[in-house]
Each structure stands twice: as structure tokens, then as C-alpha cells.
Design brief:
The protein is an all-alpha fold. It is 74% helix and 0% strand. The radius of gyration is 18 Å and the shape is globular.
């Protein structure tokens, strides 16, 4: 990790604190934790897995869009276009900072749910790859809008079809090839991490590869599109 990237990540955290994104999410996570602790065994593990998939794991999609809209309003991206910061560094800083927040939220939720420590790696892996994929997609969508409200409303038709394949996990048994779809694989790994259902080594392997390809592919495609806004450096 280069000093320039570290500086960008630190700046993103400052922006997120300045715009009260971190503070607001601390309150949300505290609410989730209170509900999980209060519900105890009454809250099924599949509900917690879906909660993580639909919120901490995908939160970067909405937060990234919000940050980009705020940057546009303050002409930050115009300054970035004139700087030596590359689209890859810009997107990497956003992906790392927002994914760290997502992972922190998931750790709190998992601990409140008394999740076994040995299940944490697969849960964190699924969260990280999901977060990176949706952050990257959020950046693509954000380029189409000029205001935060426009983004939040207009992004729904984009994100809904992307999340929808995760619902295939309701089918049991699900064919192995279905897990080639990243959303299906992402939720499956979270369900496995929370001991919901079973999965063979082949299923887990395909899910891991699918999650990785979704994150890497989305990131590479997005940083290529960002060259039109930040320049090719």
C-alpha cells in the first residue's frame, strides 16, 4: 500500500466522519445489536445472514454514491482530475475505507449473535467481496446522477436486479452452476457462516471463486470507466 493510497484512505475516513456517515452508522449498528441481543434465540440465523447481506455488505453502494455526489457539489472531483491521483487509487481508497466500516459492523453483529469464531473468516470474506463489488457498481451508477436524492431514488432500479439472484438460495437443493452468480454465492457463504443449511466443498469453492471474480471484475471495470472523469494516469 503506497503512502498516497494511505493518505487517500485517511482523507475518506475524515470525509465520512465530517458528513456524519460513520456516526449515523454507529447508531444503526447499535440498534441492530440491541435487537439481536434482546431477541436472543428467537431470531433465526438466516435472518441475521440476510441482514448482513442487505445492509453492512451492500452499504457501500449507497454511501459511495452519496460521497461522490458530495464531492461533485464541492468540486472535489474536478481537483482530483487535475491531480496525480489515478482512478484506481481513487476507487481503491473508497473501497477500502467503506469495506472497513462494513467489516466492523459485521463483527459487532456476529459477536452479538454469538457466532463461533471459526465461522468469522467465511463471513468476513463474503462481506468484503460483496462490499467491494457493490461499491464499484455504486461508482458506475453515481456517474449518471447529479444530486444525492437523485442517486438514492434512481439507483434502486440498478441495485434491485443485482441483489435479486441472492433469493435463489431459497431453492433447495440449488444446482452448482447457480452459484456462478456472485449475489447467489455471496449470500450462500453468509448462510454457511451462520450454520444455515449445508454446503459441499464444491459449492464453497465455486462460491469463493464467484465472490472473488465479482469483486475483482467490478473493480476493474469501474476504474476503467472512471478514467473519463478523473483522467487516465
Amino acid at each position: 500500500m503506497t503512502p498516497k493510497l494511505v493518505a487517500l484512505i485517511q482523507n475518506d475516513f475524515r470525509l465520512q466522519w465530517r458528513y456524519r456517515i460513520i456516526a449515523a452508522y454507529i447508531v444503526v449498528v447499535a440498534l441492530y445489536a440491541t435487537i439481536i441481543i434482546s431477541a436472543q434465540d428467537a431470531l433465526p440465523n438466516w435472518a441475521i445472514a440476510i441482514l448482513i447481506y442487505s445492509d453492512p455488505a451492500v452499504l457501500g453502494f449507497f454511501f459511495l454514491g452519496g460521497l461522490m455526489m458530495l464531492e461533485k457539489g464541492e468540486n472535489v472531483r474536478t481537483a482530483l482530475a487535475m491531480s496525480a491521483i489515478s482512478p484506481t487509487q481513487y476507487l481503491a481508497a473508497k473501497s477500502i475505507s467503506l469495506t472497513i466500516i462494513a467489516l466492523g459492523a459485521v463483527v459487532v453483529i456476529a459477536l452479538c449473535a454469538k457466532t463461533p469464531i471459526q465461522a468469522m473468516p467465511i463471513i468476513l470474506f463474503a462481506t468484503a467481496t460483496t462490499s467491494i463489488m457493490f461499491i464499484s457498481i455504486g461508482a458506475i451508477v453515481a456517474l449518471r446522477f447529479k444530486t444525492i436524492n437523485g442517486y438514492l431514488i434512481g439507483s434502486v432500479p440498478f441495485v434491485t436486479p443485482l441483489i435479486a439472484p441472492a433469493a435463489l438460495n431459497l431453492i433447495d437443493p440449488l444446482p452448482l452452476y447457480a452459484f456462478i452468480l456472485p449475489p447467489t454465492a455471496q449470500l450462500k457463504l453468509l448462510l454457511v457462516g451462520f450454520s444455515v443449511g449445508s454446503a459441499s466443498l464444491a459449492v464453497i469453492t465455486v462460491c469463493v471463486l464467484s465472490c472473488m471474480s465479482g469483486a475483482i471484475g467490478s473493480f476493474c471495470f469501474t476504474q476503467h470507466l472512471l478514467k473519463s472523469e478523473l483522467g487516465d494516469k
